[in-house]
Amino acid sequence: MRFFSCSLVVGLLLGTLSCSRDNRMEYLLKPGLGVGSLRLGDRKSQSERDTESSREGYAKRGLWYAFDNAGAISEIIVTSREYATDRQIRIGSSVKDVRAAYGTGTEGKMNLLKGDLPIGTVGELTLEYSGIVFLINLDRVVAIRLIGASVR
Questions:
Q1: Dist CA 43 CA 68 (whole Å)
Q2: Which of 33, 81, 126, 132 sees the fewest Cβ atoms within 10 Å?
Q3: What's the DSSP call for residue 41?
Q4: Taking Cα atoms as reference points, which of 7, 150, 141 lies closest to residue 78?
């Protein structure tokens, strides 16, 4: 019985390890492309992602997305530490880490809008690179925005 229990625990651990290794791509943020099966440019008609339950499921995982006027996914917002870029930048990374991994980038602000009227800013600054924007507050990444390479 003791041998069986140890084998079961080892088997479960190995199964978990191989499972998480197989799922690593699901948590990889790809600038200008998307994350996992959620892809920039996918249209509502190409997927069933735009249902209340699927949006709720993504939101529980720290992913939000928006559609443009043509019905294509135009941006993906990430707020969970589980996701990282191939350069290991994730929620909680420092500005220094981002710049070491991506370079200087373009600094900016993310405006909070009411209609077309700016009513404030979100975070202290943004660092923008091709296909990805890092929202910074108190020297830490608090959100990551995946966008098309030519979107600002």
A1: 9
A2: 81
A3: T
A4: 141
Q: What is the residue extent of each domain of the chain?
A: 28-147
Q: Is 8 helix (H, G, I), strand (E, B) or coil?
A: helix
70-100 burial, b if ≥16 CB within 10 A, otherwise e? eebbbbbbbeeeebbbeeebbbebebebbee
Contacts for 47 with CB less than 8 Å, ≥ 6 apart: none
Q: What does the pLDDT average to over 107-128? A: 88
So what's the architecture of 28-147 in CATH? Answer: Sandwich (2.60)
Summarize pLDDT for 61-85 with one digit per residue, the tens: 999 998 888 889 999 999 999 999 9
**Token pair in block for residue 1:** 């019985």
> Could you tell me the maximum CA-CA distance found in the chain, to the nearest angstrom?
69
